[in-house]
Every structure is written in C-alpha cells, then in structure tokens.
C-alpha cells in the first residue's frame, strides 16, 4: 500500500510553508501509481483558520519557534493548509484514481497532527490503522512531504503499530531545519527511522 503524505501546494514552491523542490515528488508518485501500486491512501493538512500551531495565533511568536502545548513541544508554523483553500487541495497534477482514502489531519483547533495515524498527543487516532487492518495491509510505502515531519511521524507510528515500513526517498522532500549539534531535521529523522527498522529506498527499486 502506498501512502501519499501531504502532497499539497501549501507545501510546494509558492506555498505558505514551502518545502524546497516539493513539487518534484508529484511525477515520481504518479509513476508509482501507474505501475507497482494499485492501492493508495493520501493525507491532507486541513487546518481551521487561527489554528493553535500557527505562529500568528501566539502574540510575539515567530514561525519555527517552539512552544509547550498541553501535549508537549510544538513547532510554530506559518499559516498553511487552510481548510477549503486551493493550496490545501491535493496537487492538481496528482493522479488520484488509485487513492482509496483521504485522511484529513490537523482539523482540531487545539492540537496539531503530523502523523497519518495519530494526532500530536500521540494517542488520538485518525482511523487509518483500522482501515488498513480491515484490508489486511502489512507493508506501507510512504512518499510525500515533508520527510522530517509528517512522513517521519507517519513512518514511526506505522512501525509502532506493527507494519513493515519503507520510505521512498526520491518521492519525498524535507524541510531541513538546523538541529543542535549539527545537521538538520532530515538527518535526525533518517537516523531515528533507520534505528526503528524503516527501510529507505528509491522508486527504481520497487518492482
């Protein structure tokens, strides 16, 4: 099963929370959807205006600062993925015929949601796990945006739930914020996921 994470214009060049080269994932994902994957699900960031994860909702705060929320540390973001806006839609060039489920996340005002499986309290579910279980899915291949946030959180939770998880590197792009001690959030996410047993591979390796 292919999981397509947040392939939305809001995360692409010209969008509110642009990931460098983010639009380059679309043709790679389309090739996967036209070949090895007959079944897929997708996620959408789907925030109400004034969402608690937006820096604009906190006086004196700037994007990419971190604050404490009741569920733990929360990175503050530029306003993005606003419900019903054109930039919150799945990318218009994404081939959707094989996408059987769209999971909308981050729609609760007071809690953010990176993972396709859980909101950021790490306990409130999206329902995706039950949907996959009902279909007998045991292996998940993840693609989309961003490698170091929504893809990484989705991969981590999928492993925790017992799936065999693969991240298709050339079908992903990351934000790459600097981290203490050197490197970026992409590097840190890859190290963490590899330690959890996630396999990184290229789209050309999938038969």
Account of the protein in words:
It is an enzyme of class 3 (hydrolase). This is Nicotinamidase. The protein has 207 residues and is an alpha/beta fold. It has a single domain, classed as Isochorismatase-like (Rossmann fold, 3-Layer(aba) Sandwich). The chain is 21% helix and 22% strand. β1, α1 and β2 (40-45) form a beta-alpha-beta unit. α3 runs parallel beside α4 (185-196).
Q: In what order do the strands lie side by side in the largest sheet?
A: 5-2-1-6-7-8
- Measured between the Cα atoms of the first and last residue, the distance is 13 Å
CATH architecture: 3-Layer(aba) Sandwich
What is the strand content?
15-25%
**Helical/strand content category:** alpha/beta
Strand tally is: 8
Kindly state the mean pLDDT as a whole number? 96
Global Rg: 16 Å
Assign the CATH topology. Answer: Rossmann fold
* Total count of domains: 1
Number of helices: 4
SSE run: EHEEEEHEHEHE
- Please give the share of residues in helix: 10-25%
Low-confidence stretches: none
**CATH class membership:** Alpha Beta
The coarse overall form would be globular
Q: Which terms would index this structure?
A:
207 residues; alpha/beta; Rossmann fold; six-stranded parallel β-sheet; 8 strands; 21% helix; hydrolase; Isochorismatase_Nicotinamidase; EC 3.5.1.19
Condensed summary:
The protein has helices at residues 25-34, 128-134, 147-160, 185-196; strands at 2-5, 40-45, 66-69, 72-75, 99-105, 139-145, 164-173, 199-201. It is an alpha/beta fold and 207 residues long. The chain has a single domain (2-48, 81-205), classed as Isochorismatase-like (Rossmann fold).
């Amino acid at each position: 099963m292919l999981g397509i994470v947040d392939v939305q214009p809001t995360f692409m060049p010209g969008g509110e929370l642009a990931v460098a080269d983010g639009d380059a994932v679309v043709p790679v994902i389309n090739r996967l959807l036209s070949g090895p994957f007959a079944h897929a699900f997708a996620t959408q960031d789907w925030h109400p205006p004034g969402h608690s994860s937006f820096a604009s909702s906190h006086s004196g705060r700037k994007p990419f600062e971190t604050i404490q929320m009741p569920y733990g540390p929360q990175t503050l973001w530029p306003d993005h993925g606003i419900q019903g806006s054109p930039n919150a839609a799945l990318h218009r060039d994404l081939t959707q015929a094989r996408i059987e489920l769209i999971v909308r996340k981050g729609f609760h005002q007071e809690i953010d949601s990176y993972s396709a499986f859980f909101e950021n309290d790490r306990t409130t579910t999206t329902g995706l796990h039950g949907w996959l279980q009902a279909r007998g899915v045991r292996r998940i291949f993840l693609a989309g945006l961003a490698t170091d946030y929504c893809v990484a959180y989705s991969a981590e939770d999928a492993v925790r739930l017992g799936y065999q998880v693969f991240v298709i590197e050339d079908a992903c792009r990351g934000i790459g914020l600097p981290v203490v001690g050197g490197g970026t959030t992409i590097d840190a996410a890859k190290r963490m996921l590899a330690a959890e047993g996630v396999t990184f591979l290229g789209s050309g390796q999938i038969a």
